[in-house]
Write a structure and sequence with these properties.
InterPro entries: DUF4386
Number of domains: 1
Structural class: mainly alpha
Largest sheet: none
Organism: Salinihabitans flavidus
Pfam families: DUF4386
Protein name: DUF4386 domain-containing protein
Keywords: Membrane, Transmembrane, Transmembrane helix
Strand content: under 5%
């Protein structure tokens, strides 16, 4: 596999990809942990319904943050393909497709959140509205994990591309590959063995670390490689 040759144009695309990656990390973690998470208790439908109805702006903001994340994810998938296609077009295309599938599934899962909101605010007289809303909230969570199955595959492929790039340190590729395994295992447990999911949850810290590190590396592309762009080529062969 040939190594990646970073040109000024590709360096600019890498920096833009890093910026979108940062938006994804902030909006994704903000929506799940900062905004939506505190409102939802899957063991108590009534408490969850009361919390959401008491903070409608917070719940809607979580949906908006997820939408921003999905839009940024689509852009990032395209940019990373443009960066790596000169090195390995087949693998780069595969990574983009897997990431776009994840993006579509996560965006589609937002309909479950909207449905939960509609059930709670437009179901006057429906005695089991909180329980029904909780089902849709759980459906969203499962849809998110289904999307992460495809993102896990994307991360494994990206890990291979970064490892063999010759531009990025191999530790970034290893980190992305490990993140991919965590996503695949975590989503598999969530979907097929949910009783084990809480035990595995701390492993997701590895994904945050690996993706944040690669995000920062992309953002620093100019500083890392500027000397290479200006270096004269004395090879006359």
């Amino acid at each position: 596999m040939p190594v990646l040759k970073i040109t000024p144009d590709l360096a600019w695309k890498a920096r833009l990809a890093g910026l979108l990656y940062l938006v994804i990390i902030i909006s994704g973690l903000g929506a799940e942990l900062g905004l939506r998470g505190p409102l939802i208790d899957f063991s108590d439908a009534d408490a969850t319904a009361a919390a959401i109805l008491a903070a409608p702006g917070q719940f809607r903001l979580a949906i908006a943050a997820d939408l921003v994340m999905a839009l940024s994810d689509a852009g990032l998938a395209i940019l990373l393909y443009l960066v790596f296609r000169t090195m390995a077009p087949g693998l780069a295309l595969s990574a983009m497709v897997f990431r776009l599938i994840q993006t579509v599934l996560i965006a589609a899962s937002l309909m479950a959140l909207l449905t939960a909101w509609l059930v709670l605010t437009h179901a006057d007289g429906l005695a089991d509205a909180p329980a029904l809303a909780l089902v849709f909230l759980d459906l969203h969570a499962h849809g998110y994990d289904l999307g992460l199955v495809f993102f896990g595959m994307n991360s494994l492929i990206m890990g291979l591309l970064v490892w063999r790039s010759g531009v990025f340190a191999k530790v970034f590729g290893a980190g992305l590959a490990i993140a991919g395994l965590v996503y695949l295992i975590g989503s598999g447990l969530r979907l097929f063995a949910p009783e084990w999911s809480p035990v595995f949850a701390p492993a997701y810290a590895l994904t945050i670390l690996a993706e944040t590190a690669f995000c920062l590396r992309l953002l620093l592309q100019r500083r890392a490689d500027r000397a290479d762009f200006a270096k004269p080529d004395f090879n006359v062969s």
